[in-house]
Write a structure and sequence with these properties.
Number of helices: 9
CATH topology: Phosphatase 2c, domain 1
Largest sheet: 5 strands, antiparallel
Shape: globular
Strand order of the largest sheet: 1-12-9-6-7
Number of domains: 1
CATH class: Alpha Beta
Distance between the termini: 36 Å
CATH architecture: 4-Layer Sandwich
Order of helices and strands: EHEEHHEEEEHEEHEEHHHEH
Helix content: 25-40%
Number of strands: 12
């Protein structure tokens, strides 16, 4: 049996803020985000569809259901992500199976929101991006736009998936029954030994936090993960960044913004001392 206290070295932080354009149009914050530290680190960001009337309700329900699913799946996540006896290929397939189960649970929660509320399930549409940390492997899941970036021990950062955009601007996939039935979600696992941190974000911050010309994270992503690992990034600082004038002065900066960070504490210390 594994000792879950070993994950105590991970720091976590999640913030969602309403965008200036949503304030101007008197729309609610349609993003939702969350981090989990026990029994293992995990992070999730959901971005409600701008055209869906109750997408903010759907996004919030999805984050809650993600937490519930993590707890329910913990014995299987332990087998998939922690064991030294499972090969990379088997872990990859096992995670795909668990991600499918998780997506089905979240869709069911979305449908329940529509049943007890107003409108159809499509009125609660949202995207989803998430990561779950294991001792041997770290797992990733994404439906629609947004981004997941990893901070690598070798010193650079990279996107886990290529940016997921539709044929036309502002067109993306949402998590629904068709997404699950058509197996139209992205999954991946990476060796945890190669990763010092993960950032999950909605598409709102991408204009400043991704180098879109090269499909790579901007320097600010590595800096934030490193600062989180050292305990030097707090909620107030992240809020200040996501609500600063850099967004007000950019015509592309009006969307809601969510960032969730997991960082292995003091992972950069050895490199800095060399």
């Amino acid at each position: 049996m594994f000792e879950m206290s070993r994950f105590a070295e991970w720091e976590s932080l999640a913030v969602s803020v309403i965008g200036p354009e949503h304030v101007r149009r008197e729309q609610p914050l349609q993003d939702a985000s969350g981090v989990v530290c026990s029994p293992r680190p995990a992070a999730v960001v959901c971005d409600g569809a701008g055209s869906a009337r109750f997408s903010h309700v759907g996004a919030e329900a999805a984050v809650r259901e993600f937490r519930i699913a993590l707890a329910a799946l913990e014995p299987m996540l332990e087998s998939c992500l922690d064991s030294n006896e499972i090969s990379f290929g088997c872990a990859k397939d096992y995670w795909r199976y668990l991600a499918n189960w998780m997506c089905r649970a979240i869709v069911a929660a979305k449908d329940e929101s529509a049943r007890v509320g107003s409108g159809s399930p499509g009125d609660y549409d949202f995207t989803l991006a998430a990561t779950v940390v294991g001792w041997r492997y770290t797992a990733f899941l994404q439906v629609g736009d947004g981004a997941i970036a990893v901070r690598l021990h070798r010193g650079d950062s990279a996107l886990v998936f290529k940016p997921e955009k539709g044929r036309y601007a502002n067109v993306t996939k949402f998590l629904d029954k068709d997404t699950v039935e058509e197996d139209a979600f992205l999954t991946r696992i990476l060796p945890s030994s190669a990763i010092s941190g993960v950032m999950v974000m909605s598409d709102g911050p991408e204009i400043k936090m991704l180098d879109m010309s090269g499909n790579r994270p901007a320097r600010i992503v590595s800096d934030m993960i490193d600062d989180c690992a050292k305990g030097e990034l707090d909620r107030a600082s992240l809020l200040n960044y996501l609500t600063g004038s850099r967004w007000m002065n950019d015509p592309r900066g009006g969307d809601d913004k969510s960032v969730a960070i997991l960082a292995r504490a003091n992972t950069r210390k050895g490199e800095n001392e060399e």
